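hiii so um. not sure if this is the right channel but i have a protein structure encoded as tokens and i wanna go backwards to a sequence. like what aa goes where. can anyone help
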């Protein structure tokens, strides 16, 4: 009995540590992307040769690719986070694929459709914008006009 209790305490201690390591890794990747982008801007501003600018841009692409791979690994390791309840849209709802620039009616971006960007590792929304769920998609909407800014298709399983 004592061994089970000790094993349970060890598991309870390790699980949050693993989750925080994933968060830390994604945070570090975002920081690397910002630093690489600053290097590109600095190279352009200082009049570096086109070859040096291309090398800096390649570094930015590599940093973004690494971030994307880490995010996909997180998604693969924690599929239950992305299995939300069945989507129930507003009256008259029929799913249609949308693209940035599309304008939603007010009922589609009501408070009940808002999602927490931190839970799903989405970028923070700027003032006046919200991440909403639309079917199995996640959409960044300007809540003043209803215009779609960004769409991530097939986000939820």
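sure thing!! here u go:
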């Amino acid at each position: 009995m004592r061994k089970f209790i000790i094993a349970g305490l060890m598991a309870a201690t390790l699980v949050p540590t693993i989750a925080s390591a994933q968060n830390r890794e994604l945070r570090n990747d975002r920081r690397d992307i910002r630093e690489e982008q600053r290097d590109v801007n600095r190279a352009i501003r200082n009049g570096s040769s086109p070859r040096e600018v291309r090398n800096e841009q390649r570094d930015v692409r590599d940093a973004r690719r690494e971030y994307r791979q880490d995010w996909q690994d997180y998604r693969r390791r924690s599929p239950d986070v992305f299995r939300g309840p069945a989507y129930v849209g507003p009256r008259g709802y029929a799913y249609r694929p949308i693209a940035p620039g599309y304008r939603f009616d007010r009922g589609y971006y009501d408070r009940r459709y808002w999602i927490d960007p931190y839970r799903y590792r989405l970028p923070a929304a700027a003032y006046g914008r919200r991440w909403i769920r639309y079917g199995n998609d996640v959409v960044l909407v300007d809540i003043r006009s209803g215009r779609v800014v960004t769409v991530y298709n097939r986000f939820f399983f």
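oh and Residues 14-19 have pLDDT under 50 and may be disordered.
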